[in-house]
């Protein structure tokens, strides 16, 4: 097979992310990426300098995709409590089965180790929380920061699902979030 003469950084990072997602962060090496994308290891070193640079750029690429997906979903879901649940279910589909989710936790470990990547996570928290908050704008008596509360419930439901993944993650998340929304709405009604 002849090597491609050019391949965009974005294309290389997409392949690098697939390697991380399928085999874990430790699987990303210049040699393995070179084999997967068809560029020489030397070319990859020229582009990304070292493994830390390659890993960081790969995970920043993943954060960019998540930001895009979140914005797209936020623009199309109904601005209702049900729309908030719909948005989070759609984001949950990326987790796949338990093996994929477990690999994702290894990727999260890499994000937590790097201040630049942690900052991206913090920024996404704000983006997601605001999108969820918008969905509740017409629901009377919702508590302050309902978006962050719901995002936290979502992340917790993913973790609880992972300990006993007997059903599809989307179904578990949907049930958990619907119970949360009912409790929030009932609590708001009781206060008025």
Automatic annotation (TrEMBL):
Domain HTH tetR-type stretches: 6-66
DNA-binding region residue numbers: 29-48
GO MF: DNA binding
Keywords: DNA-binding
Protein name: TetR family transcriptional regulator
Keyword Coiled coil (UniProt): no
SUPFAM superfamilies membership: Homeodomain-like
């Amino acid at each position: 097979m002849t090597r491609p003469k050019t391949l965009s950084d974005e294309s290389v990072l997409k392949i690098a992310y697939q390697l991380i997602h399928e085999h874990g962060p430790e699987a990303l090496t210049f040699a393995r990426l070179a084999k997967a994308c068809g560029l020489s290891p030397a070319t990859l070193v020229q582009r990304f300098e070292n493994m830390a640079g390659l890993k960081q750029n790969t995970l920043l690429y993943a954060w960019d995709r998540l930001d895009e997906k979140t914005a797209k979903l936020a623009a199309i879901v109904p601005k209702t409590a049900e729309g908030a649940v719909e948005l989070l279910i759609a984001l949950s589909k990326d987790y796949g089965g338990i093996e994929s989710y477990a690999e994702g936790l290894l990727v999260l470990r890499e994000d937590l180790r790097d201040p630049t990547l942690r900052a991206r996570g913090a920024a996404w928290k704000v983006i997601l929380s605001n999108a969820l908050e918008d969905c509740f704008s017409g629901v009377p008596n919702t508590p302050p920061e309902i978006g962050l509360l719901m995002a936290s419930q979502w992340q917790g439901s993913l973790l609880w699902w992972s300990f006993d993944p007997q059903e599809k993650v989307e179904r578990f998340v949907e049930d958990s979030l619907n119970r949360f929304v009912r409790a929030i709405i009932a609590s708001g009604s009781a206060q008025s």
